[in-house]
Design brief:
526 residues, 7-stranded mixed beta sheet, 5-stranded mixed beta sheet, globular
């Protein structure tokens, strides 16, 4: 049952007077529940309880933490169709979409449970002592990763399950041994409430410390208070460049700055190389039309820039792409604010000198997103930074370059991106390796053919990139390496073996792979 309350650890709380409501974007109807925004006192209580929980949660065995994550997944699945229907109602996305997203959410939790058990995330490195080394003895040093403390997580509008309450940020922070305080997203309040209760049932079943997980409702002020709280030690955020940068700046203004792992803007450029383009321009256009329109373009990996070289095949590609997008229906976007922003930013782009819209530019209303493409020549694109910015929604801009030299200039002019795609034959890459080199300096994930939509949750995934794709290009928000954002290294020097953490003891009781004196081994230290 949806309560509309905040959760300060296990305790439901509704001290405030400000009330939030959930909306259905398909018809603008209002859900009946009232959600009480957290007061400053409630936010403070949630963080303080998380800080108290940290003292014991960080010491809970990796196996018990793994079981906790698996139990969260079970409790989410136990919500059944009611969760899917509520998420669909609050987002305008089909129920079928949430069957897949729920599976991804639960699989992420299980994946981090497996990470906890294999221990590789601890990154154990041991240099044993050489007491008789000359001219000075070598001391014993043993290094591993440890949790950092309470983490604030901001839910994402476009993934109410996989990137929100119990999504990747929460799963990786909990796996690392850090309590989490979620700031629920205003666009899916009911979904957040249901998942919060599922997590707290897992807290109870697994006997985790009270304060291991909390959730507060609210707007900008609530988020600001979380970021500024001196006991919050890191922030996870997925959303707009404007929102992520504001959080990043706020965190760096604190007396003790903290890391903000924000995944933000990306146009995900795709370079349409000439040999590949000549082979099947119509087929490629239809593939990209489906990717642009997928989920009403509301993916951080939607292909927003398509860069090619002027030619008859590129002209055929553009014609087919524009026709395919024009034939697609207008579909409800996540909420009225996002729909308004889509048409506002799209309108600004197509009004720029030299940009030609290829289709119906009218807003159909009712929060519906209509796909559209436009084209511009390479020199105009290079001269107008406005055209480099992300437009969140089903829109893509084709940049027609004069030659490979101008295409290379476009590649170097781009800002940081989550992904970059080479739509290419092998002959294209052999003839123009400089394009690959240029794009590799700009992105976190480099694709050969295919489309960027679709982010596999696995060990090798890199979902992050140079700014403004993310605030720390060294990290990922998807995949097992996401846990590294919420740990820090510590070295123990000359400690008695009996007092060391199990991961560092001579006998290797956890059976971990460790680097000992420069060699990877599971063997005990004699």
């Amino acid at each position: 049952m949806i309560t509309g309350k905040n959760y300060i650890g296990k305790d439901a709380s509704a001290m405030g007077n400000e009330v939030l409501k959930a909306y259905n974007p398909t018809d603008s109807s209002i859900f009946p529940e009232e959600f009480v925004a957290a007061t400053a006192e409630e936010v403070d209580a949630a963080v303080n309880k998380a800080n108290s929980a940290f003292q014991s949660f960080k010491g809970i065995s990796y196996e018990k933490r793994a079981q906790f994550l698996e139990t969260i997944a079970e409790e989410i699945m136990a919500l059944g169709d009611a969760l899917l229907e509520r998420a669909s109602g609050e987002s305008g996305l089909p129920v079928g979409r949430f069957q897949g997203e729920r599976g991804r959410t639960c699989n992420q939790l299980k994946m981090f449970a497996a990470v906890l058990r294999d221990g590789s995330w601890l990154d154990v490195n041991i240099d044993t002592a050489i007491p008789d080394r000359q001219p000075i003895p070598k001391v014993d040093l043993r290094k591993m990763q440890i949790p950092i403390g309470p983490v604030a997580v901001f839910g994402a509008s476009n993934f109410p399950l996989a990137f929100s309450t119990a999504g990747g940020d929460t799963a990786s922070a909990l796996a690392a041994g850090n309590p989490v305080i979620v700031k629920g997203h205003e666009a899916h309040l009911g979904t957040n409430d249901m998942v919060t209760q599922a997590v707290l049932r897992a807290v109870e079943k697994c006997n985790m410390p009270d304060g291991t997980f909390s959730m507060v409702n609210g707007g900008i002020e609530t988020g600001q208070q979380l970021v500024k709280h001196p006991k919050v030690k890191a922030v996870g955020f997925t959303g707009s460049l404007r929102g992520g940068r504001a959080i990043f700046d706020l965190a760096n203004q604190r007396p003790e700055p903290i890391p903000v792992y924000a995944e933000m803007g990306s146009t995900n450029p795709s370079f349409l190389m000439p040999d590949k383009m000549a082979s099947d321009p119509e087929g490629l256009a239809n593939i990209f039309a489906n990717s642009v329109a997928l989920g009403v373009g509301q993916f951080c990996t939607s292909p927003g820039l398509l860069i090619g070289i002027k030619s008859a095949p590129l002209n055929q590609f553009i014609q087919t792409l524009s026709q395919a997008l024009a034939a697609k229906d207008s579909v409800t976007m996540l909420n009225a604010k996002i729909a308004k922003s889509y048409y506002s930013h799209r309108g600004l782009a197509i009004e720029q000198t030299g940009v030609e819209a290829l289709g119906d530019v009218n807003d159909p209303g009712e929060n519906k997103g209509k796909p559209l493409t436009a084209k511009v020549d390479g020199s105009t694109f290079l001269a107008n930074p406005q055209l480099h910015e992300e437009i969140f929604g089903p829109f893509t801009l084709v940049v027609a370059c004069e030659d490979i030299t101008e295409m290379l200039a476009v590649a170097y002019a781009l800002s940081g991106q989550l992904t970059g795609t080479l739509v290419a034959a092998t002959s294209d890459l052999e003839a123009h390796p400089e394009i690959v080199d240029a794009l590799s300096t700009k992105v976190g994930r480099l694709l050969f053919n295919g489309v960027p939509t679709g982010v596999e949750v696995c060990h090798a995934m890199q979902h992050g990139g140079p700014y403004p794709a993310s605030t720390d290009q060294r990290t990922t928000s998807v995949g097992t390496a996401a846990i590294s954002r919420f740990v820090r290294p510590i070295s123990y020097q000359s400690w008695p073996d009996s007092l060391l953490p199990d991961a560092l003891k001579n006998s290797n009781p956890l059976g971990l792979w460790r680097i000992v004196d420069g060699e990877l081994t599971k063997a005990a230290i004699q």
